[in-house]
Amino acid sequence: MTRGSREKPLAGQVAVVTGAGRGIGAAIARTLAAIGAQVLLCGRTRKTLETTAEAIARAQGQAEVAVCDVADLNSVEALAGQVERTLGRVDILVNNAGIGGFGGPLHELAPINWDQILNTNLRGVYYMVRSLAPIMIRAKTGHIINISSLAGKNALPNGAAYAASKWGLNGLSYSVAEELRSHNIRVSVLCPGSTHTELTPHTGKDAAKMLQPDDIAHVVVMLVTQAPQSFVSEVLLRPTLKP
Asked: Residue 242 falls within a domain, yes or no?
């Protein structure tokens, strides 16, 4: 092992991060780039993705921008084609893109809002795995990390659709992990608690006590640098002090 490989453990690897324009996704992208990964920043808004890319460039990291809506299969398949043509590989896939839904009881939720939440938070992960896992399978290596929530482990009144999407994501993650183990692909699900982002309602909470995006990024680094003979299938991450 060279000195450079010790300092940059992900040197030569390609990481695809969805929802990379802000919050948790941007923090994960910056942190992976800092330890050597070439990061493909995915999201629906080019301007925010470019802001993340600029921050990575200032820190002398490598990043490219790809506008992609994970809820649109055609968009995701186009992304996969871009990855194969321009990067030739994907070592890490972080499925982070998600939208919240905390507006009231389920019986008052409009069907269009249900569809938006489930399509992004759950169907979008299916589309990404469907489109990018084959690249990992051919390479016989890879790591998929799905960003879920403690709402996928506990009841969430007035956020039932969001909770359902995350409970579903957890089940998807555990099942896909079993499907891909024989291909030397590791699948982990990360369930953070209250996190200080635009997605999370802050009413009545102390933002300083909440998890910060960099806390989630730190755990992602731990997962992708885990020794190759083992993997962490699930992480539950809570703030030390209740916000």
From this structure: no
Q: Is residue 206 part of a domain?
A: yes
Contact 47, 31 (CB under 8 A): no
Q: Is 127 a catalytic residue?
A: no
Q: Does residue 62 lie within any of the structural domains?
A: yes
Q: What pLDDT is stored for residue 2 in this prediction?
A: 43
Residues ≥6 apart with Cβ < 8 Å to 232: 188, 222, 223, 226
Task: Give backbone dihedrals phi and psi of 2, rounded to 5 degrees, phi first.
Answer: -80, 165
SS3 22: coil
Q: Which domain holds residue 35?
A: 3-237
- Give residue 130's pLDDT: 98
Of residues 126, 127, 162, 174, which has the active-site annotation? Answer: 162
Other beta carbons within 10 Å of 47: 9
What whole-number distance in Å separates Cα of residue 133 and Cα of residue 137?
Answer: 6
Contact 191, 170 (CB under 8 A): yes
Distance between CA 173 and CA 231 in Å, rounded?
13
